[in-house]
Design goal:
Blueprint: H1 6-24, E1 32-35, E2 40-45, E3 50-55, E4 60-64, E5 70-74, E6 99-101, E7 113-119, E8 125-131, E9 137-139, E10 148-149, E11 156-157, E12 165-167, E13 172-180, E14 189-197, E15 203-207, E16 217-218, E17 224-227, E18 231-235, E19 242-247, E20 255-260, E21 266-273, E22 276-283, E23 289-295, E24 302-306, E25 309-313, E26 318-322, E27 328-332, E28 339-341, E29 348-352, E30 356-360, E31 367-372, E32 377-381, E33 386-389, E34 395-398, E35 404-406, E36 418-423, E37 426-431, E38 434-439, E39 445-449, E40 462-465, E41 470-473, E42 477-481, E43 487-492, H2 500-523, H3 535-549, H4 554-565, E44 572-578, E45 583-589, E46 595-600, E47 608-611, E48 616-619, E49 625-630
Antiparallel strand pairs: 1-49, 2-3, 3-4, 4-5, 6-7, 7-8, 8-9, 10-11, 12-13, 13-14, 14-15, 16-17, 17-18, 18-19, 20-21, 21-22, 22-23, 24-25, 25-26, 26-27, 28-29, 29-30, 30-31, 32-33, 33-34, 34-35, 36-37, 37-38, 38-39, 40-41, 41-42, 42-43, 44-45, 45-46, 47-48, 48-49
């Protein structure tokens, strides 16, 4: 037998290596595959390992994220959403914003449910709770026996869209309605409210004595505060029995404005009574009317309640009525914007036409100081003053005397400011290639990372706190650092040779979750709602102010502990790059910055969702398929 030469051996070995390399270049097999004939529009991974999939026929599907098993399909749930239109009048696409998975850090079972709630404010509206493990509609106005109306098209269950929703403190759903029943003799005004256990889906109690036009507030004693068009009430949350009620004086009129102070001790109502308007102060614990004062105004005013009184802003005046008796303490020039009590004797801050921030003296209504800044908006209250944003998205700080603590050239420059808040008294910002640490008690701001340079000249687009460190990232870069600014790791993964459009599509998918959260917050009433109710914004500023005033006490410590306990601790980032055997993803530990896994996709423009805690990705290779990978 002829002996194989050294050259032949080398060629043979090279051939084996080449064959092996070509074999490795094939994409790895997924753990599971799912095909939907109608096409996959979006995916949303939920905390309870269910992958929700929206299909192009506006169907909704539940998939076991571990096995890829199709658990259920509901092709009718979103049918009416096909007609939804945006503010520009154009038809909206099918997005995950239409569904809110419920969450409770103390009870994982809550995330078995999701709330589907959307409306175009005219005809198209929906409100259901589904079990995302089974696809079963467990709660809806129809299942709860709410009355129905039919004007044009199919029958629709009647409900107050802004007043119906999930009450997390009570783990319950409230469906409430009020309307004039055109089909009954005399066309009576009808009110109905139903309190439904999320766990059982059964109506625990119901009442035809009251309703609410926005989601009731859960009071400190775990009861409910209902504010309706004609009836407001405090309700025993266990039985539905009224603890007290407050009715409009004339049944043909409605309550037209309402607000309550931060601690929900007093509420203020505006209604028409006879030939004049009236502001009434009600003690919210007992329902006792404390005082009532006439108000001459053509239009319903905006009420802003504080512990020292209620500010009444109409088309001409900006008036403070005293808390004790309702007497007018002072009247100032017409102002507009969100009103914020600065606490102590610092005054009342009011925005004016996105140009000025003006502070009035609480006792006299006279102007204490004013700052003119284009596009100025209050960002948050701090212990050192008012943090604000300007028209460019830059962040500044005004102290309580009206001085720019950091403003103009000393601002945190926008646009593109990123931020992370590890505790209620600290915040970290990325802007203009620098990382800043801000002490929210003192207002001290310092640069802790002076120059951030990312490979491929990328700009960071995400900053997060993991519970152990901070991570600044872009499409192909990650940098970890601690509170002092010490860089723990920094790494760049070269982008595969793909189009810019492909890279943008990938990052858009990752960042979309933040936008969805913002959209849900907006939908849940972060803006002025019925009756001009603004407390969801202005009360938050008051809570921030009280936190900083109480920092030295147990309240501040407990609040910070609760805040830290809710910080997300996602473990992994996924980055598209060349993984040696082809184009794929690397799985990177956010704490150490080390690669802990990789997967070959051989697709230069993947669109995927992920489970960052367990390291799973859900990849959409075609318009009709979803693949699940574990690595």
């Amino acid at each position: 037998m002829k002996k194989i030469s050294t050259t032949t051996q080398s060629l043979f070995l090279a051939l084996l290596i080449l064959l092996g390399t070509r074999t490795l270049a094939y994409a790895q097999e997924p753990q599971w595959k799912l095909t939907l004939e109608k096409g996959v529009e979006w995916t949303k991974y939920t905390p309870n390992k269910i992958l929700l999939v929206g299909s192009s026929d506006w169907g909704l599907h539940g998939v076991d994220a571990s096995t890829g098993k199709l658990l259920w399909s509901n092709e009718d749930l979103y049918n009416s959403a096909k007609a939804l239109k945006g503010p520009d009048g154009k038809k909206l696409g099918y997005t995950a914003d239409l569904i809110q998975v419920l969450e409770d850090p103390t009870d994982p079972k809550i995330s078995d449910f999701a709330l589907v709630k959307y409306t175009d404010n005219i005809m198209v509206k929906n409100f259901v709770v589904i079990n995302i493990r089974t696809g079963e509609v467990v709660i809806s106005p129809k299942l709860a026996g709410m009355p129905v109306v039919k004007v044009i098209g199919p029958e629709m269950a009647t409900f107050n869209y802004d007043g119906s929703g999930y009450l997390p403190e009570l783990k319950a759903i409230l469906i409430t309605a009020s309307f004039v029943d055109m089909y009954q003799a005399g066309k009576p005004y009808v009110q109905i409210s139903k309190f439904i256990s999320l766990e059982t889906g059964k109506v625990a109690w119901e009442s035809d004595q009251y309703s609410s036009i926005f989601l009731p507030v859960v009071t400190d004693d775990n009861n409910l505060l209902f504010i309706g068009e004609k009836t407001s009430a405090k309700i025993n949350a266990k039985t539905g029995a009224p603890i007290w009620t407050f009715e409009v004086a004339d049944k043909k009129n409605n309550f037209e404005a309402f607000d309550a102070n931060i601690r929900l001790t007093e509420g203020y109502f505006y209604q028409k009574k006879g030939n004049q308007g009236v502001v009434s102060a009600v003690e919210l614990g007992s329902g006792k009317v404390l005082w009532e004062k006439p108000l001459a105004t053509k239009d319903a005013p905006i009420l802003k309640a504080e512990n020292f009184g209620v500010i009444v802003a109409d088309e001409k005046n900006f008036t403070l009525m005293e808390a004790a008796n309702g007497n007018t303490k002072w009247t100032a020039k017409k102002l507009s914007g969100i009103v914020v009590d600065l606490g102590k004797d610092r005054g009342i801050a009011v925005g004016e036409k996105d140009k000025y921030l003006t502070v009035l003296d609480k006792n006299s209504g006279e102007e204490k100081w004013s700052q003119k800044i284009k596009g100025i908006q209050i960002d948050q209250m701090t212990g050192a003053g008012i943090m604000y944003r300007d028209e460019e998205g830059s962040i500044g700080l005004i102290d309580f005397e009206g001085n720019l603590k950091w403003g103009s050239k000393d601002m945190i420059k926008g646009p593109g400011v990123l931020r992370a808040k590890p505790s209620l008294d600290q915040e970290f910002f990325y802007a203009d290639e620098k990382v800043y640490a801000v002490n929210l008690v003192t207002g001290e701001k310092k640069v802790i990372v002076n120059k951030v340079e990312f490979g491929e000249k990328e700009t960071p687009d995400f900053l997060e706190y993991t519970g152990s460190n901070f991570v600044l990232s872009s499409s192909q870069n990650m940098m970890g650092f601690d509170e002092s600014g010490r860089v723990l790791f920094q790494q760049h993964w070269a982008s595969p040779k793909i189009s810019l459009a492909g890279r943008i599509a990938l990052r858009t998918m990752q960042v979309a979750m933040v936008a969805m959260a913002a959209a849900n917050a907006y939908a849940e009433g972060a803006t002025t709602g019925p009756m001009g109710y603004q407390s969801s914004i202005s009360r938050q500023y008051g809570i921030q102010r009280e936190f900083f005033e109480d920092m030295s006490g147990a309240f501040g410590q407990a609040a910070n502990q609760r805040f830290k306990a809710t910080i997300s601790r996602g473990v992994y980032n996924f980055i598209l790059t060349d993984v040696g055997e082809g184009v794929g993803l690397v799985k990177v530990d956010k704490i150490s910055g080390k690669e802990v896994g990789k997967i070959v996709l051989n697709d230069k423009e993947p669109v995927y969702d992920s489970d960052p805690e367990n390291g799973m990705i859900f990849y959409k290779p075609t318009k009709k398929e979803v693949y699940g990978y574990t690595f």
